[in-house]
Amino acid sequence: MTTNAKIVQEVLDRYIPNPAIPLQHKSPYTLLIAVLLSAQCTDERVNTVTPLLFQKADTPEEMVKLSPDIILQIIRPCGLGPSKANAIFSLSKILLEKHRGKVPGTFEALEELPGVGHKTASVVMAQAFGKPAFPVDTHIHRCAKRWGLSQGKTVQQTERDLKRAFPEETWSKLHLQIILFARVYCKARQHDPAKCPICSKLV
Questions:
Q1: How far apart are the first and last CA of the chain?
Q2: What is the DSSP string of 76-103?
Q3: Contact 100, 92 (CB under 8 A)
Q4: In CATH, what number does 28-129 get?
Q5: How do the pLDDT tens digits run along the chain, 203 residues long?
Q6: 64 with 89: CB under 8 angstroms?
Q7: Cβ(170)–Cβ(132) under 8 Å?
Q8: Helix 68-75 × helix 81-98 angle, to 10°
């Protein structure tokens, strides 16, 4: 590990020792839906919407009994409503037809589902199935550059750099730690490096 990577890990373990998954869920399926809804939407808003949705349907079997229009009415506050509603309905149908109603535990199968990109698949693999994955969102992309861990122009390059920088067994925890740390200490706007517990230690 580089000096910067060691500093980052030490500070994160001190400030965010036991990161909790910010999206409320009770199964791989509800986690998948919550992560899908979180695209371009805050976790807080998703957490206000999913209880209403999951009260009506928290399994693929129940979800396909709803129409995309009914799903849309519930999830509209999350933004991108029509495309997300169609994706939720369609992927639920595919899970029933191809996967016996279960969320598949491989990147390939997950990324074939409507509305599920690599980041969403990575979160599900890491948090639902405990598989090594390092999902990169805008917070992580920003911090990796600030902390000298990656010069990647894309989240894909940043993901590759971070996987090289840290041991595989730490990836899933680090993903959560960085997101939670960034929201409080290393924000996108009005960031003062001298006051940031990580940026202030890096040269």
A1: 16
A2: GGGS-HHHHHHHHHHHHHHHHHHSTTS-
A3: no
A4: 1.10.340.30
A5: 899 999 999 999 999 999 999 999 999 999 999 999 999 999 999 999 999 999 999 999 999 999 999 999 999 999 999 999 999 999 999 999 999 999 999 999 999 999 999 999 999 999 999 999 999 998 899 999 999 999 999 999 999 999 999 999 999 999 999 999 999 999 999 999 999 999 999 96
A6: yes
A7: no
A8: 130
Q: Give dist(CA 157, CA 155) in Å, integer.
A: 5
Give the class (CATH, top level) of 3-19+133-201. Answer: mainly alpha
The single residue listed with the structure tokens 């890096």 is: 202
pTM for this predicted structure = 0.92
Domain ranges of the chain: 3-19+133-201, 28-129
Task: Please give the single-letter amino acid code of residue 143.
Answer: C
For the chain, the C-alpha Rg in angstroms (whole number) is: 18
Indicate which residues carry an active-site annotation. Answer: 119, 137
